[in-house]
Amino acid sequence: MKPYMSLLLLLTLLLMLSCNVITVCSKPPWLKPGLYVEYKISNGDAVQLVLVVAREILIEEDLLHKYKIGNSTVITDLELEEFMELMRSRNITDIGRKPGEFTIISSYSNFHERLIKAYKEGRLPKIPEEYGSYVMCQGGYSRVNASYSWLLLGFKDGLAQVNVRFNGWVKNESTGETKHIDFNFTVYIDPDSRKAFTAEGEYLGIVPFWISNAQVGSRVPILSLHDQIINGTISGEADVETPLGAFRAYSIHRTDKTINFPGMEHVYFDRIRGILLSTRGYADPILLHYMNISCILTGKQPIVVSKLEYYELPSLIIPTWRMLQIAGVIALAAASIIVAITIYMRRHRAPYTP
Description:
Helix content is about 25%, strand content about 40%.
């Protein structure tokens, strides 16, 4: 056999073998097609607009006023004379005798209009004070009883293709109507950074579906909203109860908060895989982009994992690198056949007879 024929056959064999080797690996290693994670939301509030502002900032921006009246400290949206008149009209006579600090808002709708105006004008800090913040919630759904889930379909160009679903019963805050909603979204998530993108490539933010490389005492990025990364510090380990049983988990007492998110509290991630197990309060950039939900507030009842399964999925995606490999094998195989036929015909053609 000629040397060039041996080289062609060797290249063809190597490419064919490479097509049978799985070279796409996910990080973390448990992140495989068919993984399904579902969370249960009970009696939550899915809020469209949230503003978290320290009371001192509200006073500095003249949105609230602070008065010392006798033994009482009063924070209100009214001027002092208006406030005293309001107290007289309501026959409230003990203001000034009671020690302590009291916040009395005469008109929340008017106060919230002024607060939103200050926010749009950029007068409010993006990172609120740690304590003593006022939280304004507006719009969205209340009495949310739903499931929120994600299913890993496969990988494409190194990104995880994920189907995200929000399904359940909600009460519309604008109309008062209780209705069933069911939304599905397909997003692409970088397995290492957890950065999520739309199918068109638009960057959404970091999702809190899992964490990686965590240990007690480490500070890790949990999610991002409005281009702000929200971190949390792993304070320790704990056993957390779920409908699936008890899990050993990393615990985060409270994440950072921003002007648009009051934070997540009592957050637990599975110690082995890093999957989010339970949290009070939740947000992610997928809900913000597709449903205009800034966050889900849950009170004392946490959002908790209710299903964690692997499904057998058909091959839904052929990655670009795999398609190029297959095309290369076909091209080399065709070239080898053509060369072999040409050599055969030259060797076996009839001798020339004049």
